[in-house]
């Protein structure tokens, strides 16, 4: 398995570590108005991985709720799926990306991107690395939410 595939498969486990003790009331909560909720972050991770796996067009209608340019919502919109559904979708999408990345050849990893977009990535490998950086940024925000929600010590402490 490609090393990046191992990393992407670990994302759902990190999310679980940081959110294992979140209550149903805390998932949609925004302790600060400029922050997204843990539930939005979870949905955004699903949408990001679906895009990377080439499956964004197959996401349910709620996928648009979690796009990167979506402003933080004052309350949980009715279209948002339950956290359990998002967790399952996150695991499924991470597995799908890991499969796609494992099946890539070295030539495909080194291939120049047809449309690099705003990222500045020049190759498929650079785009994957930037995706993992983005994912880690959002997972890191879960630690910030933990602190603002006054949860127990960080799962990585100690």
Report on this model:
The protein is mainly alpha-helical. 53% of the residues lie in helices and 0% in strands. The chain contains five helices and no strands. The protein has helices spanning 3-19, 38-52, 83-103, 106-110, 124-148. α2 (38-52) runs parallel beside α3 (83-103) and α2 (38-52) runs antiparallel to α5 (124-148). The chain is globular. The mean pLDDT is 86.
Please sum up the structure shown.
The protein is mainly alpha-helical and 158 residues long.
- The number of helical runs is 5
Q: What percent of residues adopt helix (DSSP H or I)?
A: 40-55%
H/E element sequence: HHHHH
Rg (CA only) = 16 Å
Q: Largest sheet, if any?
A: none
Approximate shape: globular
Please count the beta strands (DSSP E, at least 2 residues each).
0
Query: Low-confidence spans: pLDDT under 50, at least 5 residues?
Result: none
Mean pLDDT across the residues is 86
Which structural class matches the secondary elements?
mainly alpha
Gap between N and C termini: 31 Å
**Portion in beta strands:** under 5%
């Amino acid at each position: 398995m490609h090393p990046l595939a191992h990393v992407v498969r670990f994302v759902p486990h990190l999310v679980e570590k940081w959110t294992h003790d979140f209550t149903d009331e805390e998932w949609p909560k925004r302790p600060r108005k400029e922050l997204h909720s843990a539930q939005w972050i979870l949905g955004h991770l699903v949408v990001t991985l679906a895009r990377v796996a080439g499956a964004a067009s197959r996401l349910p209608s709620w996928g648009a709720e979690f796009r990167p340019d979506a402003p933080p919502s004052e309350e949980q919109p009715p279209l948002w799926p339950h956290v359990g559904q998002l967790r399952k979708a996150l695991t499924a999408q991470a597995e799908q990306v890991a499969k796609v990345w494992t099946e890539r050849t070295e030539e495909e990893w080194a291939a120049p991107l047809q449309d690099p977009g705003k990222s500045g990535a020049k190759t498929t490998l650079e785009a994957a690395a930037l995706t993992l950086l983005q994912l880690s940024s959002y997972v890191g925000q879960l630690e910030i939410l933990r602190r603002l929600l006054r949860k127990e010590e960080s799962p990585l402490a100690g």
